[in-house]
Amino acid sequence: MNEYVLIITMAIAFLITVLISPIFIPFLRRLKFGQSIREEGPKSHMKKMGTPTMGGVMILLSVTITSLIMTNKFNQGTISFEMILLLLVLLGYGTLGFLDDFIKVALKRNLGLTSKQKMLGQIVISVIFYIILRQNDFPTYIKIPGTSFQWDLGWGYALLIIVMLVGASNAVNLTDGLDGLLAGTAAIAFGAFGILAWYGIPQYEITIFSLAVVGALLGFLVFNAHPAKVFMGDTGSLALGGAIAAVAILTKLEVLLVIIGGVFVLETLSVIIQVISFKTTGKRVFKMSPLHHHYELMGWSEWRVVSTFWIVGLIFAALGIYIEVWIF
């Protein structure tokens, strides 16, 4: 596989998303699948009320079609267990998010699935993922980035997978709060993993999948950048979170996910810190959490917040690549 194949993969996913969006967005609008806005959120967001959501469906379609096309071309129609797992997580978490979105926008239940229902679904998909891994003799060790140190977790690896998939899907979901914020930061993170999957002993199908996500997200950004014409909803955010954790696991870069996904980690930590501080002292550390809302309430424009977080995401991605490729 050469560089041209990587570009073609991203181009196909980009074009699919760009071409289906002008059809799908008006369809969502006709169905009145519009975004509801939290009353406690920034007042500037009220103008986003009614913007079509569930646009994550376009991302899922684009990634799935592109991955299957490119896999069929370079693997003679055979789909490896890695690609099966990646699509399982992407579509499984995407379906869970779709149900959550559908309950919110179609059935007019603002909270969607209950936290217990969502958590149960996330865990079930994680367990299925682990079972397929072990049936294919996938190693249960983790390694420390930039070193040759490995630690075999044995059965503890199952717990790690559940924590990673559930944690990443929720962390990415928290990041989806501003126009283009998640699409941009996720494209950067998947791009970093795509480079690492291609580097050294190439994992072609993981590279194809990762770059298909990048292409689909860049195509989605055409319509999701400020001012957004569509939101991805939980359909997209849960799917992307689960998928990036799956990519990290299959490339044996589990620990590196914390660095490459640094923006998602910071967003999650801001929520955890805010909750702990308020419950223990009655005071808030941030004006509002997740972190991107804090900067909005400080007076930053939405575009300034988003572009700054993209830059931070690029720094984390570059650091992750540097640690894995150049240090080691």
What does this protein structure show overall?
The chain is mostly helical. It is built from twelve helices and two strands. A hairpin with a 6-residue loop joins strand 1 (141-143) and strand 2 (150-152). It is globular and about 45 Å long. A two-stranded antiparallel sheet has the order 1-2. The longest helix has 28 residues, at 3-30. It has helices at residues 3-30, 56-74, 81-105, 115-135, 156-175, 181-198, 204-224, 233-250, 257-260, 262-281, 291-297, 302-327, and strands at 141-143, 150-152. Helix 2 runs antiparallel to helix 3 (81-105) and helix 3 runs antiparallel to helix 8. The protein has one domain (3-253). The mean pLDDT is 91.
Question: What's the overall average pLDDT, rounded?
Answer: 91
Residue windows where pLDDT falls under 50 for at least 5 positions: none
Strand adjacency order, main sheet = 1-2
The helix/strand order is HHHHEEHHHHHHHH
Give the end-to-end Cα distance, rounded to a whole number of Å. Answer: 24 Å
Radius of gyration: 19 Å
Shape: globular
- Count every helix, treating DSSP H or I runs of 4 or more residues as helices: 12
Question: In this structure, how is the largest beta sheet organized?
Answer: 2 strands, antiparallel
SS class: mainly alpha
Query: How many domains would you count in the coordinates?
Result: 1
- How much beta, percentage-wise? under 5%
**Overall helicity:** 55-70%
- How many strands? 2
